[in-house]
User: What shape does this take?
Amino acid sequence: MSSSRIITLTTDFGTKDAYVAAIKGVMLQIAADLRFIDISHHIAPQDVMEAAFLLQTAVWEFPAGTVHLVVVDPGVGTDRRPVALRKDDHWFVGPDNGVFSLLLDGEEPDMLVEIDEERVQQHDRISTTFHGRDVFAPAAAILAAGASLSEIGEPSEELQPLHWALPIPDEQGIRGWIVHVDHFGNSITNISRELFEKHRCSREVTCYVGNGVLKGLHDTYGTVEKGEPLLLFGSSGYLEVAVNAGNAASLLNIRKGNPVNVVFMDRSS
Assistant: This one.
């Protein structure tokens, strides 16, 4: 049973419109002492993979009992299921469109239910275009107020599957992709430190991405001159391209989805 009364919010609504405020208003009517933490409202529209990536970097840092509300819902109003689930004392609420399969990365939830809309709805009618307000928000608030999953829905067997695009290693290096460009222009790849070190074998590193060629691996931004690009592992544990006191995406013409080619060469080559 949830107990922290913290709700995180992740949406693709942006902050220009009143959608996020409406969602919070609905939840406060159910439990006025809820605490809201905004993970992001600037997910690219309908980008389920970007939502899952950002969730992975943040949700497990929250205390047990936190409810994570995710409204990136390109299938709103269709037959995609509204779901709620528990994993390692965290609760998740949102559409069953693959976002939670990606977040759990192959692991099964401890419990999964399909939300019964009649049990959670707060108005006479549920909008076919705003389930974030009319279905997911009340479900999240009810859970954060202490209800169990069985009170808001019926047990379900499995989540809609969706899989990450995996990097491709070989003897010469690793081919990956840019999965996220953050506010600073740091361009984050899907190449994990574990995979990188497994195939590097102490060899020299050259990375080709955008219009840049980066040599060597660095520990932090300040190891190069201001305005210079570099390659390093960021706080997410994935390889990223950055610029000391600058914007790598702009400087090197990098966009989300761009290929990244890491080449390993013997020091004598």
In short: The chain has a mean pLDDT of 95. The domain at 6-155 is CATH 3.40.50.10790 (Rossmann fold). The first strand starts at residue 6 and ends at 11. Residues 131-144 form the longest helix (14 residues).
